[in-house]
Structure formats: structure tokens, C-alpha cells
Design goal:
It catalyses: coproporphyrinogen III + 3 O2 = coproporphyrin III + 3 H2O2. This protein has 485 residues and is α/β, with parallel strands linked by helices. The protein is 37% helix and 21% strand. Helix 1 runs parallel beside helix 17, helix 8 packs across helix 9 and helix 11 packs antiparallel against helix 12.
Length: 485
């Protein structure tokens, strides 16, 4: 009796989710083909040189207190390349001045009223409103509610506008009026179900945090954009195939598995596989699933995305009248500034400063959901906006030696109210189709560790399906063998 052929699995999408799923599958003994539509892998993790320094064009840090990402770097043999910030001290530009981010907060939700007052982030009236949270009756919220509705009801709108939304804006580029409290602030939301007061709920979150949790963030010495390539090397070393410029245009069920249509319409290629992991962003995932899993596609179509641009500026150190002392600052949308955040990369990451002490690298972020018109300007206009911001806020009086604009269209999925239920419906619809799984930033968290976790889970479900199918085939073979004369 001939041996069963090795199962073949396609992974659609070459970002971290697709690469991690491919690595898990290749390690599970199956044949893997990863298909990425663009010319390069990595998704939003990209790095290139500016002024001779490797500076990330997208996300620059991984959350170190959640283990999946840093553990994977170590598993890949590059633990020695992990580095941590020299400072995580950040500021808020509020009422026209840079003010310290108050201590005692969790994603902008305060618990220390003295520290909040000392920061001067809020107006006197806004500050006076916050302690009413301690005496107000419980705020009903049902299964979910927007961040603005719940926190605003407890602490007042200024806390939302000047603290919470700027911090969430750095993650989602979203609006607190629409973002889900349950999905974007899960620890605070869970604690708030056990406390009438939100201040006391946040105190509880902080009290249960480890006494010495270690560094908050980490990156790689040559940029976080190296990370996808480290994973890709491991995939190919395990026998997996990675194809770029291979756009998947259609996904259809076949009697034995799935058929993917790849490439241009004038010269399509068909790829038949036993199973598929769809690990691309929500909009293309919806298009691929529309034919076979329309219920999942409809839910994914409802996930809006935000676009943004990152303007990286390399200045001579002399351009700053005094060197920046913090990692950067956030800009609330109520300040009506074009830039929503600035990171002083050379201050935040000592390895960049040490590589060239004569250069200060700053990254300015422009664009929130619903503000696509701000990104329709030319690269030169976006550079000018970023330079003006640093001139006004930091007194920078020289031109940068080099500047770079990186545009991320539709890069950030919005976790709007009802997100968790929406994703549950997607997964329920997908689960009805054996040999199919989904993964990526649109589901359980936009951070790299969360994406790694759901990619591994998706690949695990595929391996379980293939194993059960193999057991079924073995049983049928034994049954057939027993009926032979």
C-alpha cells in the first residue's frame, strides 16, 4: 500500500500572521506555500536606512511583557539582538504645551488624582469632574459600549479627549466615540465590571500587575522590520515555499480541498491544496471568502481601516536647542494639529543614538480614521507639516539632513463597538468549512504578540483537521483491506 502524500497547505498573506502560521505548519510536517501579493514580505514591519541608520518605516517596537514575540525572536536564535528603550517617559501636548503623561494611568485612564492634577493635562473644570466617578451610581454598558461613552460618563469628556484617545490613537488611529471599550481596553473593561468606580477599577489593574514586570517594549538592533525575514528564513529552512508578487484572486472549495487562483486575470494560475490559512487584512480576506463563506465576508467588510503616514526626519543634533529628554509626545485631536504623535527614536532607542550621536531621528505620525484627505497631499507637503510641528514644539531651527515619507493605506483595523461579537461570527462561519482558518491583526489584537498568538492558533486548527482527515483515511484503508478476499 502506497504512503499517503504529504498534505499541502496554502497561507495567503506574507505579514507576521502569515509567516508565523507558515512556520507552525512547516514544523507540523506539512508542505506549505505562502503567497504574498506585494513584492516583499513583512506587511507593516519594514526597515530602511535614513542618514545611514536603520530606522523602521512601520511599527518599531513589540510589547515585551506579553511573551509571544520576544520568545519567538529567541527561538529563532536572535535573542542577542533584542534591545529595550532607554526611556519610556512620554508627554501629551495639551492646551498648547508639552505636559508629562501622568503616572498611575492605564492607557490614559487615570487612577492617581494628585498625579493627574500635577500633569496639568486637563483644564481646572476637567480636573474637577474626574473625582465624581467615585460617587456616581454604576454606569450600565450592556455587552459593549464605546470608549468615549463609558469613560466619559465616569470621568468626563476631557479625560477621553486629552488622555485616552491620544494613547489609543497611537495603536488604532481611531476615534474613542467608535472604538470598543471591551476590545481596546480589555483589562480595564474587565476590572470595571467588578467596581462601580472606574478609578478604583484602574487601581485594581495596577495592583495586580507584577511588582517587577521588566521592560515594556523591545526591538531589534537593526530594526523590527528584520523580524519577518528571520521568520521567513526559518520557514524556508523547514521546507516551506514563500512566493511574493503572487496575488490570490479567488478561493474555491473543491471535492478534495481548496483551489486558489493566483496572478493576473490574463494569465491565471490554479493551485490545489488540502487546506488554507487566510492571513491577509480584513478587506482582501472578505473578498476571498465572499464566494464560499459569505457570512464571514459580510462581517469582515464591516471592519473599517485607518490610513496613516510616518514622516521620518534625521536632524543634526545641533538643530535642537536642547536635546529631547523623553521618548516622544502625543497630540490629542482636539488640539487641531496635523501631527498626531512624535517619537524621538534616537532618544527612545540608545543603539540608534550610539551608532551616530551627531544625528537625532524623529518620526512624526499623520492621519486618523476619517482623515484620509490629510494624506492626499504630496510627500513634500507632509514633510513640511512634520518639520513645522518640530519647529513649533521643540524649537528646531535647521533642516533635516534626510527625510522619508512612508504611507500606510488601510493599515490599521478599527475595533469598533461590537468587535468581539463580530469576530466570533466570522470564526463560527469559517469553522463550518473544514480546512479553512483565518488570522491577522483584524481579530484579537493589532500588536505583534497578539497576531503571533492567533496565527499559531489558526495553524493549529489546520493541523488538527489534517490529522483527523488522515485518521479517517487510515480507517477507511484498513476497512477496505479487511474486505479483500
Amino acid at each position: 500500500m502506497s504512503a499517503e502524500p504529504t498534505p499541502h497547505v496554502a497561507v495567503v498573506g506574507g505579514g507576521v500572521a502569515g509567516l508565523v502560521a507558515a512556520l507552525r505548519l512547516a514544523g507540523g510536517g506539512v508542505r506549505v506555500t505562502l503567497l504574498e501579493g506585494s513584492p516583499k514580505i513583512g506587511g507593516k514591519l519594514q526597515v530602511s536606512e535614513i542618514a545611514g541608520l536603520p530606522v523602521d518605516e512601520g511599527a518599531e517596537a513589540i510589547l515585551a511583557r506579553r511573551p509571544e514575540a520576544v520568545d519567538l525572536v529567541r527561538e529563532l536564535g536572535h535573542g542577542g539582538d533584542l534591545v529595550h528603550p532607554g526611556t519610556t517617559t512620554a508627554s501629551i501636548l495639551s492646551h498648547g504645551a508639552l505636559r508629562p503623561l501622568p503616572s498611575g494611568q492605564v492607557m490614559g485612564v487615570p487612577s492617581d488624582l494628585r498625579a493627574l492634577a500635577a500633569s496639568q493635562v486637563l483644564s481646572p473644570a476637567g480636573l474637577a469632574r474626574v473625582p465624581l466617578d467615585l460617587v456616581l451610581p454604576e454606569t450600565p454598558r450592556g455587552d459593549d459600549v464605546s470608549v468615549a461613552d463609558f469613560i466619559g460618563a465616569r470621568m468626563g469628556r476631557e479625560v477621553v479627549d486629552r488622555l485616552v484617545e491620544p494613547l489609543l490613537g497611537g495603536v488604532y488611529a481611531g476615534r474613542a466615540d467608535r472604538l470598543s471599550f471591551e476590545s481596546t481596553l480589555p483589562a480595564v473593561a474587565a476590572a470595571a465590571r467588578g467596581h462601580r468606580s472606574l478609578i478604583n477599577a484602574v487601581k485594581g489593574v495596577r495592583a495586580h500587575a507584577p511588582a517587577d514586570p521588566g521592560p515594556v517594549f523591545a526591538t531589534l538592533t537593526r530594526g523590527l522590520g528584520r523580524f519577518p525575514h528571520l521568520i521567513a528564513d526559518a520557514v524556508t529552512a523547514a521546507g516551506g515555499e514563500i512566493r511574493t508578487s503572487a496575488t490570490v484572486r479567488e478561493l474555491r472549495r473543491t471535492p478534495d480541498g481548496w483551489r486558489l487562483t493566483i496572478g493576473p486575470t490574463r494569465d491565471p494560475e490554479a493551485l490545489d491544496v488540502d487546506a488554507v490559512v487566510v492571513a491577509c487584512p480584513a478587506p482582501p480576506a472578505a473578498r476571498l471568502l465572499a464566494g464560499e463563506v459569505p457570512a464571514a465576508a459580510r462581517e469582515l467588510e464591516r471592519i473599517e481601516t485607518a490610513s496613516m503616514a510616518l514622516i521620518t526626519l534625521a536632524y543634526p543634533a545641533s538643530a535642537f536647542r536642547r536635546a529631547p529628554h523623553g521618548s516622544g509626545y502625543l497630540v490629542p485631536s482636539v488640539e487641531d494639529r496635523q501631527v498626531k504623535a512624535v517619537t524621538f527614536s534616537s532618544v527612545k532607542w540608545p543603539h540608534l543614538r550610539d551608532a551616530d550621536p551627531g544625528i537625532i531621528v524623529a518620526r512624526a505620525s499623520i492621519g486618523r480614521v476619517g482623515e484620509e484627505h490629510t494624506l492626499q497631499r504630496s510627500d513634500e507637503e507632509l514633510k513640511a507639516a512634520a518639520m513645522t510641528e518640530l519647529s513649533v514644539t521643540c524649537g528646531v531651527a535647521e533642516l533635516p539632513v534626510e527625510a522619508r515619507v512612508t504611507r500606510w493605506g488601510g493599515a490599521l483595523p478599527q475595533y469598533d463597538v461590537g468587535h468581539a461579537d463580530r469576530i466570533a461570527r466570522v470564526r463560527s462561519a469559517v469553522a463550518a468549512h473544514p480546512g479553512l482558518a483565518v488570522a491577522g491583526a483584524a481579530y484579537d489584537g493589532v500588536g505583534v504578540p497578539a497576531v503571533i498568538a492567533n496565527a499559531r492558533s489558526a495553524a493549529g486548527r489546520i493541523l488538527e483537521y489534517l490529522e483527523s482527515r488522515g485518521d479517517e483515511n487510515d480507517g477507511q484503508a484498513r476497512e477496505a483491506e479487511g474486505t479483500r478476499p
